[in-house]
Specification:
662 residues, mainly alpha, Leucine-rich Repeat Variant, 28 helices, 67% helix
């Protein structure tokens, strides 16, 4: 608060200069230069804030020292006497701490320090503002940021009681809010609090019993999307692999892993490849069976309740059960994400009861009903795809009372407007029921099934693999050529063409054109060749006028690979169809590549004929009817004779041409 002596010095220097220039009479009386005792109001306020800041700082420091002494006294003086007496004395001290509100007093010292910091920032900002605005702007901005940050933490603490930014000021505002606005502000604990606790236990606990208990709780809590559960998942995997000799514990960890796989949490997918233990073959069936039974129980409860909230709960349980089945369904004995595309084509969801009995088709009735309802009334495409893949384990059309409903659901799910996963899952389910479908004829129609329904199914099958007939798509699940999808499709058509009525139906709906397209673009060494040749041969044998537009060189290679592949498949009933397909495009021999191809075909046909004659008894022992073997031999002998005659005629013409030239 002292006057600035530099001001007086500057005035005296000015007077000396004036005296030198203008003479001694030009200088006013210097007695008036005595220091003034008056101060500007701004200076007073700045100094007041500064000294107040200093006072609060000293008080806060003094309080901190006192608090340290109080706490040391509480900890150090333990008293003497028996254990009970010392315990009573310690409890009395604790009661004194609460009675005299020691915690509140210590927090008051922190408030003093915060007030001191605020006053210091204000005084420094005001002081620099009167001298240099550029420098003061930096100080003011820093002070304002600190104030806003502190106010923000208070606001967050008031709105969210679980906030970690609690301060005495925030507690004051919380008390005010609870007193005057308690009805408008209600705090609901997070539904993910339990999952966070479980994750923390799995990541940090070293107690095996606690980890086991946490693993059992994993499927019972909700997990937030995009939560990084990699460490917890890795811990579950390690325990899963380590307890393969204890089945119940093994199953418990497996269920926890599967539940995390169906959630949207972040997990490390790489170790999934080695999770399955091949030495326990029944475990996979048990996992799938348990999930199936859980889904059925939830569906039974769903049917018996009318409350909307309860219905939603049971629907979620059914959905979780279906997702869990898919996690365990990979044929490579590993866990996988339920949306993995490979599960559509490679999953194996078959299961058996604990006594190794296979489930009856009636046990799948609930799932057929659930699929039928979802196909008509729900937009949950994910669940529909899961249900279709689970139903593929029936390897049929289900019980007689549900076949019509099941076929209708398959048709609905294969419409072009459905997502690729749903269409392809329906195609897979239909493929698994191909043997039963092929056995249906006009004379043996199941209950509720008629020719019109099968016609719709035939058209839907083509839509499933070719939803956009007028467009060529090169990549993605709806690509014009998709190996997994088209392999499933060809297996289905291959089986259906065993039935002449299906041959007529498939031809009318354009399936031969699709097969011709595949034959024209597929790799010549593909396993598709055998199926394609048999399909073409059966359709031709059924009396259909089949017009092939496949490039001639591709057709020759297709037939050649078919004959070489058949000896591996060893399916006797295919031979008549392959013979018919071979005759579809026989041309006259010449000296070019066609002649070499023809000679190879003759050789393969002869080998097949000899091999079939030698293995007749073996095929009969396998249950193949003698009539089927005789039909195959007859067709082979006829083709061999025809080809041999063509070769003989070609050799004769070659000799005649040589003689005429000589």
């Amino acid at each position: 608060m002292q006057p600035n002596p530099g001001d007086t010095t500057n005035v005296l220097l000015l007077y000396l200069i004036q005296t030198t220039v203008n003479g001694p009479n030009s200088v006013p009386d210097i007695n008036t230069l005595s220091s003034s005792t008056g101060y500007s109001s701004s200076t007073v306020w700045v100094q007041t804030l500064a000294y107040a800041s200093l006072a609060f700082s000293v008080l806060a420091a003094f309080g901190a020292v006192l608090g340290k002494q109080w706490l040391n006294s509480y900890k150090s003086v333990r008293g003497r006497g028996s254990l009970e007496e010392r315990g009573i004395e310690r409890q009395m001290k604790l009661d004194g701490v609460e009675y005299f509100r020691l915690q509140t007093v210590l927090r008051a010292f922190l408030v003093l320090l915060q007030i001191s910091l605020l006053l210091f920032g204000l005084s420094l900002s005001a002081r620099m503002w009167t001298q240099e605005t550029t420098i003061s702007s930096v100080i003011i901005c820093t002070t304002a940021f600190g104030i806003l940050f502190y106010a923000g933490t208070i606001l967050v603490s008031v709105l969210r009681p679980d906030s970690p930014f609690q301060t005495p000021a925030s507690e004051l505002f919380v008390a005010i809010r609870q007193k005057f606005l308690s009805d408008k502000f209600t705090f609901t604990p997070s539904i993910f609090a339990k999952s966070s606790a479980i994750r923390w236990i799995l990541e940090t606990s070293t107690n095996p019993e606690i980890v086991k208990a946490a693993a059992a709780i994993v499927p019972c809590v909700q997990w937030p999307p995009n939560l990084d559960a990699s460490a917890a998942f890795s811990r579950l995997q390690d325990n899963f692999k380590a307890c393969q000799d204890r089945e119940e514990l093994y199953v418990k960890y497996g269920q926890a892993i599967a539940y995390l796989c169906i959630q949207s949490v972040k997990i490390n997918l790489e170790p999934l490849e080695s999770c399955w233990i091949a030495s326990i073959p029944k475990i996979q069936s048990r996992f799938i069976r348990d999930a199936f039974m859980a889904g059925r129980a939830a569906y039974d409860q769903l049917k018996n309740t009318q409350e909307t909230d309860t219905q939603l709960k049971h629907r979620a349980s059914v959905r979780t059960a279906l997702r869990t089945m898919l996690v365990h369904g990979c044929t490579r004995r590993r866990f996988s994400r339920p949306d993995d595309e490979c599960l559509i084509w490679d999953s194996e969801l078959c299961w058996c009861h604990s006594d190794e009995r296979e489930p009856s088709c009636e046990e799948f009735d609930w799932l057929v009903d659930y699929l039928a309802y979802n196909a008509e009334h729900s937009t949950d495409d994910e669940t529909q795809g899961d249900a279709l893949l689970a139903l593929s384990a029936m390897h049929g059309l289900g019980s007689s009372s549900k076949q019509q409903s099941y076929i209708n659901s398959l048709i609905h799910c294969m419409q072009s407007t459905r997502p690729p996963r749903v269409r392809h899952a329906a195609l897979r389910a239909t493929c698994e029921a191909r043997e039963e479908l092929a056995s249906i004829s006009s004379a043996l129609m199941p209950q509720g099934v008629d020719a019109q329904l099968l016609d719709e199914l035939s058209r839907a099958l083509l839509t499933a693999v070719r939803p956009y007939n007028d467009r060529t798509i090169r990549t993605g699940p709806d690509a014009s050529l998709h190996l997994d999808r088209d392999s499933c499709y060809l297996r289905l058509i291959y089986t259906l063409t065993k039935n002449d009525e299906w041959c007529q139906r498939l031809t009318r709906d354009g399936h031969p054109d699709r097969c011709i397209f595949i034959a024209d673009v597929v790799n010549c060494s593909s396993e598709f060749n055998l199926h394609l040749s048999v399909i073409f041969g059966r359709i031709k044998s059924s009396g259909v006028d089949l017009r092939l537009s496949v490039a001639e060189w591709r057709w020759r290679l297709l037939i050649a690979f078919t004959w070489s592949t058949w000896r591996i498949s060893d399916a006797v009933d295919e031979i008549p169809a392959i013979v018919t397909a071979t005759r579809l495009n026989l041309t006259a021999l010449d000296d070019g590549p066609e002649g070499e191809w023809f000679v190879n075909i003759v050789t393969d046909v002869h080998k097949t004929l000899v091999e079939l004659q030698q293995k007749q008894a073996h095929h009969v022992d396998r249950g193949i009817a003698q009539a089927t073997i005789d039909a195959a031999l007859s067709s082979l002998q006829g083709l061999h004779a025809e080809l041999s005659l063509m070769v003989e005629q070609w050799n004769s013409s070659q000799r005649n041409d040589g003689a005429s030239r000589s």
